[in-house]
Structures are given as structure tokens and as C-alpha cells.
Write a structure and sequence with these properties.
Elements lengths: L4 E5 L4 H12 L4 E5 L4 H10 L8 E3 L5 E3 L3 H7 L4
Parallel strand pairs: 1-2
Antiparallel strand pairs: 1-3, 3-4
Length: 81
């Protein structure tokens, strides 16, 4: 398990851009993985999401996962709500 937040995304995904902007605006470090350039990451996302390429899929150091979260979901995850 990683000690970083990992954002599985694509370059064309507006929800991915929004989630990464949320992290950037709040100074939250993360690693971005473009699933279109990493076949292992693509398979991981498909496995987590029951065969779907749902992005962003965000994996947290505690093992929890958020899929296509809204900003409010991210804020709740970090105790901002």
C-alpha cells in the first residue's frame, strides 16, 4: 500500500481535472497515473470498478477508495465538512 494518494485518471476527463484541482488548491500531495498510458493501472481501475474505466478512481493511504467523487466528497474525506 502506498503512503501517497493516487489519482487514476485520463487527460480528457473533466472530473479528473476537477479532483486534481481540488488537491492542488488545498496543498494535498498526490500521484497522478494516466490509465491510458499504463495498462496495469487500467486493469486495476477496471477491477475496482467492476469492469468499468471509471475515473477518477482515487486510492488513499488508508486503503479507502473514492470513484468519481464530488468536491464535497473530497472535503468530507479530509474533515473539511
Amino acid at each position: 500500500m502506498s503512503d501517497k494518494i493516487i489519482v487514476y485518471s485520463t487527460v480528457w476527463c473533466p472530473d479528473c481535472k476537477r479532483a486534481k484541482r481540488f488537491f492542488d488548491e488545498h496543498g494535498i500531495a498526490y500521484e497522478n497515473v494516466n490509465i491510458e498510458e499504463d495498462s496495469d493501472a487500467m486493469e486495476f481501475v477496471k477491477r475496482i470498478n467492476h469492469g468499468y474505466h471509471s475515473v477518477p478512481t482515487i486510492v488513499f493511504p488508508d486503503g479507502s477508495i473514492l470513484v468519481e467523487p464530488r468536491n464535497r466528497d473530497l472535503a468530507e474525506k479530509f474533515g473539511m465538512y
